[in-house]
Amino acid sequence: MEVEMNNLKDLLNEWKTAIKSQAPNLLLTAALNVKPQVNPSVTFPIQAITNNLDWVNVMAYDFIYDPNQPPTSTRAPAALNNPSADLSGSSGISAWIKAGVPANKLVLGLPFYGYAWNLVNPNNHGVLAQATGLIKSVDDISSDGAISYTSIVKDFISKGAKVEDYLDWL
Fold this sequence. Notes:
Layout: H1 2-22, E1 29-32, E2 37-39, E3 42-43, H2 46-52, E4 55-59, H3 89-99, E5 106-109, E6 113-115, E7 117-119, E8 131-134, E9 146-148, H4 149-155, H5 164-169
Parallel strand pairs: 1-4, 4-5
Antiparallel strand pairs: 2-3, 6-9, 7-8
C-alpha cells in the first residue's frame, strides 16, 4: 500500500505540472477517504496533496453501511458528529487538518440520499430505532437500500415525514 501512496504522490506532482503548463485556470481536486489514512499504518501523501490540490473532497459518508452485515438500527449515512464512535464528518475534517492540510482546502462531502429500513416496530421510527436491515429494490429504493434525495423529498417529506426527528438527534 505504501507503493500506491508513493505513486499517488508522483501522480499529483506530475498532474499539477502538466495542468500549470496546459490549462492553468483548472482547479485540481480529489475525493479522498474521510480520514488521511488508508489504514492505521499507511497515510495519504499529505505534502503532495497540500502542494498540488486546490481542494480535497472529504468523503464523510457511509460510515455504517456494510453490505455483508445488516444494520440493527436506523442511522444517518453521514454523522456530522458522532459521540458514540470515533468516525464522523467532524472527526474526519479535524484529522485532515491535524495531518497538515489547510482547512481552506477541505470540502466536507455529504450524501444526498438516505436508506430505507425494515423496522422491528413501525411505531418506533426515529434515529437509532431497532431494524432488521435495509429494504431493497422496492419502488424508488435501489438494490443496496438507498433512496435518492429527490425521492426523499417527493415521497416522504412532502407527505408529512418529520425532519425534526433527525435534527433533534444531532
